[in-house]
Design a protein that fits this description.
The structure is a single chain. The chain is built from no helices and 12 strands. With 159 residues, it is mainly beta. It has a domain of 107 residues: Jelly Rolls (Sandwich), CATH 2.60.120. The strands form 3 sheets. A 5-stranded antiparallel beta sheet has the order 1-2-9-4-7, with no helix packed on it. A 4-stranded antiparallel beta sheet has the order 3-10-11-12, with no helix packed on it. A 3-stranded antiparallel beta sheet has the order 6-5-8, with no helix packed on it.
């Protein structure tokens, strides 16, 4: 992307949502139904961290419950009332609330929409090379290699 293609500002909700439902392999990708991501950081050529505007329809989840080894993550709730599920249990969130997930703690997290209304939030994460992810509730693990996520079963067998 050259400087001529990088916008100065955009209306975030007007950014076209990511076409692919999820980067997870099946059967996990199908579980992301009702989640819509707008990859807004990339529009500005950001490379050190990512910014997504994410929408969860009723019954949807943000991701599988997961924990990163090297990537810090942060969410800021704009609309709706998601439940934050972590190793400590459940925390009800509301607009204006935020949560951060320090890399390497092993504290797995996930947002769930258990309401009848949509939820919209910002998610921000760094792009630390050599990151890996554990999914304590699923037979899945991931490692970041050359900017691409590679998924395997917990026993190491690739998907």
């Amino acid at each position: 992307m050259n400087n001529q293609e990088i916008p100065i500002a955009v209306e975030a909700m007007q950014v076209v949502p990511r076409a692919k439902l999820s980067i997870y392999p099946e059967p996990f990708a199908a579980r992301m139904k009702g989640r819509e991501k707008r990859i807004i950081g990339d529009l500005f050529g950001l490379t050190n961290f990512g910014v997504n505007l994410t929408r969860l329809l009723p019954g949807a989840g943000s991701s599988l419950r997961h924990a990163h080894a090297r990537q810090d993550e942060f969410v800021y709730i704009l609309q709706g009332h998601p439940v934050l599920l972590t190793d400590a249990g459940e925390t009800q969130l509301s607009p204006g609330m935020c949560a951060g997930f320090k890399a390497g703690t092993g504290n797995a997290h996930q947002l769930l929409n258990r309401t009848d209304a949509e939820i919209i939030y910002l998610e921000i994460g760094d792009r630390s090379p050599g990151d890996s992810v554990v999914y304590p509730d699923d037979d899945l693990q991931a490692i970041l290699v050359d900017g691409k996520w590679l998924f395997a079963h917990k026993d190491g067998k690739p998907y």
